[in-house]
Amino acid sequence: FQLHLGFYIESISNFRSQEMTFDVDLYMYTSWRDHRMAHHSSEDIVLISDRRARDMMWLPDLYFANARHCKFQEVTVPNFNLFVARDGLISYSLRATCSISCSLNLVNYPMDKQHCFIRVISYAHTRERLHVRWFSEAPVRKNNEIGLPEFMIEKIQPDYCDGTYRYAITEHSFRTGNFSCLMASIYLARSLGYNLVQSYIPTGLIVMISWVSFFIDRRAVPARVTLSFTTLVSLTTLGNGLRYDLPQVSYSKALDLWYGACLFFVFLSLVEFAAVNSFMRKCDKFGGVARK
Description:
Shape: elongated
Strand content: 35-45%
Mean pLDDT: 88
CATH superfamily of the largest domain: Neurotransmitter-gated ion-channel ligand-binding domain
Organism: Pristionchus entomophagus
Number of domains: 2
Family: Belongs to the ligand-gated ion channel (TC 1.A.9) family.
Distance between the termini: 106 Å
Structural class: alpha+beta
Oligomer: single chain
Main location: membrane
Low-confidence stretches: none
Domain Neurotransmitter-gated ion-channel ligand-binding: 4-158
Pfam families: Neur_chan_LBD, Neur_chan_memb
CATH topology of the largest domain: Acetylcholine Binding Protein, Chain: A
Helix content: 25-40%
């Protein structure tokens, strides 16, 4: 039979780039028709809020496929409600807090955009037995007060995904089934403000400080060497701190290219000093020979 699904996302928080996870607090709404639950009560819709009564009913076996762990809210009471209409139409909602896995593409970090999603699949019933679809109107909604320190939420929209899986029947028997697979896609754009203040401006200023050595007398060797090496050490220390909270990926990020360029310019200031110092020593040497 058919089942309809919807989400209301209450909050998104604790976006951990190093672990590639984030926390989401959401309400999941499901609706289906079970003729066995048709009734002739005086009320058009019967509310069931007792857990024991709920556990005796058939409930869909949906699970969050890309969740590392989930917990259902039970403060101050179990957060669920279940409505049964006279014709057997059932509406079931619950509240859950999940840690969702999200594979990040950090090539353009910190000017990157990310696509995360919450994927829901039936655990045991294939599409032929349980066909899950989104509600026709506003299936995925969110709290407009949601705010993330690092990201801006561009949009959240319902999508469908490939639910083809190979599963075991016995030790030597396998089947391939097509399960209903729905996902709420979350499109995020990283805010540049934090990295501008913590990364780009400090490293840029360090490079500019290294250029001060160009205006120091060429004969003041200790001063020029000390300034160049100090800026180089400062830049290296700052760069290590910038990469501390990021996952160890096998490709270069945009921030790595910026940091490498800064190191290159500071290194060039050392090369310039070495070249000038060597050139002036030769001039002094040849000048002394000419005077003789």
